Amino acid sequence: MRGIFVIPVVAAVLLVLVSNVATADNGGSSDPTKLLVKMVKGKTLCIKGWECREWSIHCCNLTISEYFQSYQFENLFSKRNSPVGKAVGFWDYFSFITAAAIYEPLGFGTTGGKLMQMKEISAFLGHVGSKTSSEYYGRGALPIYWNYNYGAAGEALKVDLLNHPEYIEQNATLAFQAAIWRWMTPIKKSQPSAHDIFVAKWKPTKNDTLAKRVPGFGATMNILYGDLVCGQGDIDAMNNIVSHYQYYLDLLGVGREEAGPHEVLTCAEQLSFNPISSTPASSS
Ligand SMILES: *[C@@H]1O[C@H](CO)[C@@H](O)[C@H](O)[C@H]1NC(C)=O
Ligand SMILES: *[C@@H]1O[C@H](CO)[C@@H](O)[C@H](O)[C@H]1NC(C)=O
Ligand SMILES: *[C@@H]1O[C@H](CO)[C@@H](O)[C@H](O)[C@H]1NC(C)=O
């Protein structure tokens, strides 16, 4: 009995795959959800639309545009008196998705289930959308304290940012690319990226536990800003970033209660991954 049903299903799946292959090279702009699937050594790998274009387990999941739409982006960036809000017209949804597409095969916004995916987008954009007083510059404004390294970022993105940092201010796609690169790339090789921390791909060591560093939004602030915002209790600089994240969770319908308890959400009590003070001093 079963065989009767199995055959049409298999045939249907093959048909879908064949039709996808046939349209894969027409620019892919028509249907962002077209899925290609293959098995490699027992692992299922996918390519999905133009957004998740490298064979990856992550591309089998929802892509960002499938759960985060243009009107939601507008909501996030228009309703607040944030520098990003003021620069509406510079930051736009398409630039974000275009930039994200490079990193979706690596797990940006495509790790875990839909809830984790929406939380990661809220967290990343919470960082981008927050500011403390004057720590912004230009239109493509990102927090300067976001530990930018134009040399390394430019190398990764194949743009000469060292000699032309102004490109970041002129091009929203590039600005988002640089920000997502920072989110996805460890600052030091031995350390986790903000992404790894957030999606709990990072396992805290004994030292981390002693320093109260746990997977979650708080530790992403720790890795990105360290002593500038962490380990000083509930200071404004930290709360400003936290409140953006919470606000975005609410706007996306996830709800701020999903952010977890205070010690996960904030870094108020955490010791910095990279303490400013503990740089080995050349003892005199
Ligand atoms: C894809 O999503 C499922 C849940 O829907 C999750 O269990 C799985 O870990 C995700 N895959 C990747 C590669 O993140
Ligand atoms: C903006 O940057 C992106 C990514 O580097 C690049 O593909 C695009 O051509 C740039 N746009 C302009 C107008 O320079
Ligand atoms: C743990 O912390 C101690 C003291 O700060 C340090 O000497 C040691 O190198 C750390 N271990 C690791 C694995 O980071």
Automatic annotation (TrEMBL):
SUPFAM superfamilies linked: Lysozyme-like
Keywords: Chitin-binding, Disulfide bond, Signal
CDD domains given in the database record: chitinase_GH19
Keyword DNA repair belongs to the record: no
Cystine connections: 230-267
Highest taxon, organism lineage: Eukaryota
Signal peptide: 1-24
MF annotations from Gene Ontology: chitin binding; chitinase activity
Domain Glycoside hydrolase family 19 catalytic: 131-257
Biological processes, Gene Ontology terms: carbohydrate metabolic process; cell wall macromolecule catabolic process; chitin catabolic process
TM ranges: none
PANTHER family the UniProt entry points to: CHITINASE-RELATED, GLYCOSIDE HYDROLASE, FAMILY 19
Protein name, as recorded: Glycoside hydrolase family 19 catalytic domain-containing protein
Natural source organism: Tripterygium wilfordii (Thunder God vine)
